[in-house]
Design goal:
The complex is a heterodimer. Chain A is α/β, with parallel strands linked by helices. Chain A has six helices and 15 strands. Chain A has a nine-stranded mixed beta sheet with strand order 11-10-9-12-8-1-6-7-13, with helices on both faces. A two-stranded antiparallel sheet of chain A has the order 2-5. Chain A has a two-stranded antiparallel ribbon with strand order 3-4. In chain A, strand 3 and strand 4 form a beta hairpin. The longest helix of chain A is centred in the first third of the chain and has 16 residues. In chain B, helix 3 crosses helix 4 and helix 6 runs parallel beside helix 9. Chain B is built from nine helices and 18 strands. In chain B, the strands form four sheets. Chain B has a seven-stranded parallel beta sheet with strand order 7-11-6-1-4-5-12, sandwiched between helices. Chain B has a five-stranded parallel beta sheet with strand order 15-14-16-17-18. In chain B, strands 8-9-10 form a three-stranded antiparallel beta sheet. Chain B is 28% helix and 27% strand. Chain B is elongated. The chains are: A alpha/beta, B alpha/beta. Chains A and B meet through helix 3, helix 4, strand 9, strand 11 and strand 14 of A and helix 4, strand 7, strand 9, strand 10 and strand 13 of B.
Chain lengths: 260, 336
Amino acid sequence: MNIIVCIKQVPDTTEVRLNPETGTLIRDGVPSIMNPDDKAGLEAALRIKDKNAATVTVISMGPPQAEAILRESLAMGADEAFLITDKVFGGSDTLATSSILAAAIKTMSYDLIITGRQAIDGDTAQVGPQIAEHLGLVNVSYAEGIEVEGNYVVVKRQYEDRYHMIKAKMPCLITALSELNEPRYMTPGGIFDAYRQREVKILARPDLDVIDTNIGLKGSPTRVAKSFTKELKGKGTVVQLDVEESVDFLIESLQKKFVI
Amino acid sequence: MNLQDYKGIFVFAQQVDGKISSVSYELVGEAKRLAADLNTDVTAVLLGHNVTGLADKLAIYGADHVIVVDDPALETYMTDPYTVALHAVLQAKKPDILLLGATAIGRDLGPRVSGRGATGLTADCTKLDIDLETKGLRMTRPAFGGNIMATIICPVHRPQIATVRSGVMQRLDVNPDAKARVEVFPVPGLENAIAVEILEIIKKTTAKMDIQDANVLISGGRGMGGAENYQILEDLAKVLGGTVSSSRAGVDAGWMDKELQVGQTGKTVRPNLYIACGISGAIQHLAGMEESEIIIAINKDPDAPIFGVADFGVVGDVFKIVPALTAGIQKIVDEK
C-alpha cells in the first residue's frame, strides 16, 4: 500500500515575529521544527510500513528551507520526499493550501493520506479535512489510534468526552494527534543516506493541475486584516509579605470583592 | 457571487446524544449581538435524529429561527452525512455568516463545508465584530501559540464561517416565553452519504465537574511539584465551593487529567474567581483564563508573568500560603 504523509515546517512559536505591513510571518532567523502532530502522523505511517508492505511518501508545501524536515523524514524511514514550492503559492490560506496539496497528491498513487490534526503556528486543523474535500475522500479527524485491516483502517477518533472506533475504507485521509505515538529518532545510517544519497524532489506550479485563481493570496478567501500583540489586563496589586500578612491581604481582597 | 444575496447569521447548533452543547447557546448569544449591527436575525441549524423538540431550547436562548434536518443518518456525528446536510442548508438559505463551535465536531465539519462551498473559514476565534463600513465579519483569533492576535476577514466569499471555542462567548439570559419559527428541512438521500462504520463508542469516564462550569477554580502548575501536593488545592477549593484545575505543566507531568487543563491547548475558562498556584503564566496559559472575573496569583517568582494578569498577587511559598489561606477562610465561614 502507498501512504502519503503531509508535513509542515513550523517556527518555534516562542520566537515568532510578523511583518507589520503585510501581516505575514517573517520566517527567517526563527528556529524551525517538524510540526508535532505531523511527526506523529509520519510515525504512524512508518509503523504501518513496519508491519505491512507499504511505501511512505512525505510531502511538504513551503519555502525551500522546508527541505530540512523532508530530509529528517527520510532519515526516520520515509521512502520518498517531495517539496511543493513556488513563489506563486505564497500567501495561501488553508483553502488555497489544501487545493495545492490535493493537486500534488493527485500526481501520486495512494491508499492512505495522513496529515497532522493542526500545526502549532496556525492551530486551524483545517487543511487535512479540506484536502479530503478536494479529493472527494472520506476523512477521519483527531486519530489517537490507527490500525490497518485489509482494505480498511480502524481509527480511534477522539472527541471531548468519548472516542468513536471508526472503520473506513481506503483510500481515505486521517488527521493525527500527537498523542498517537512517540516518534522514532533518525538513525545514523538514515541521516547519512538522507543527506548524501537521497533526493528531495521538487513540485512547482507547472507540475500541478491547479487553477491559478485558487492558489496563493488571490486564491485565498480569507486574509489577515490586522495582527497585533495581545494587551494584558491592567496590573493589579502584587505584594511580597510574610505568610500571615499575605493571607490577610488575600482574605481582605476576597471580602472586598464579596467572594467571602 | 453577489454578496447582497447572502443574509442572516446562522449558528450550527451542535447536539450530542440529544443534548445541545453549551457552546451552541453561547454562539446564539454572540450571533444576536452581531445581528444587531447588521439589522438581521439569527437562525440555528439543528442536525440530528428525533431532535426537533430541542428547537424551543434554542429559542429561549435567542434564536429567531430554527432549521431542523431530522434524519436517522444524523443520529451520531459522522463527517459525511453532516457535511451533506449542512451544505444543503447553506446552499438553499445563503446565510451571510455561519458560526460553529470549535469542538472536535465543529473543527471537522467546518473545514468540509467551507471546502465544499469554496469559502473562507477562520478557526478558534476569540472575538467577533462587524466592520460597520463594509458590514463584513471581523474574526479575531490567537495565532502562533497565542503569541499574536490576528484579525481575519473574508471579503468576497460567503458565507463567512468562523469557529469559536467554548467558554469564550456569553449566552444571553433565558427568555422562557421566546418561540422560534421552526422549519423542518429534509435533505434526501442522507443515508447514502454514510461512508464509514462506527464500530464502537467509548465514553471517557470522569467523575469531576467540567472546569468550564465552575465558578471558582483553584489551579495548580509546575510549582506544585507533584500530584500528591494538589491536596492543599483541593482543600482550598472545598472551602470556596470550587474545583481544581491545572496548567499544561501539571498535565504534561502526569499529575492531573487532560480534562482539567486550562489554556490554549486545554480549556478556556472564565470563572468568578481563579486562583493560580505555582503557575508562572506562559502566554498559552493566560490565553485560557485571563477573562476570569477575579484572578489571584501565588508564586515564589516575583517576575512570573501570571502577576501581569492578576488582580491580587502574592509573592511567596504556595505550600505555606495556601493552607494558611484555607484555614483563614474556613474560620470566616465558621463564624458566619
